[in-house]
Write the structure tokens for this entry.
Amino acid sequence: MSICDAQHISPTNNEQPGSYADRLGAAYTQTVSQSFKKDNGQFFTPQVIARFMGSLVSTNKTQIDIFDPGCGTAILTCALVENLVEKNPNIETINLVAY
């Protein structure tokens, strides 16, 4: 798979954002070498770890602000948001800034 092919990956029907982010990361890592990722400080968190980390956070707020300064494919952010929404159905707004 080339990086151009990876750019055309779409979510499947009813796919959670975290699963989609995991597929994007896997597709991308097939297009670049290990040394390229190392030289550029690229690390791809496994989905099981992302879900665990996301599960460590809880809040009863209705508005949440999230800043992710190194989001990559956003798997950690997705896991966090999925967990927060599952634990707190009263969330009305999530403001996300991701780089």
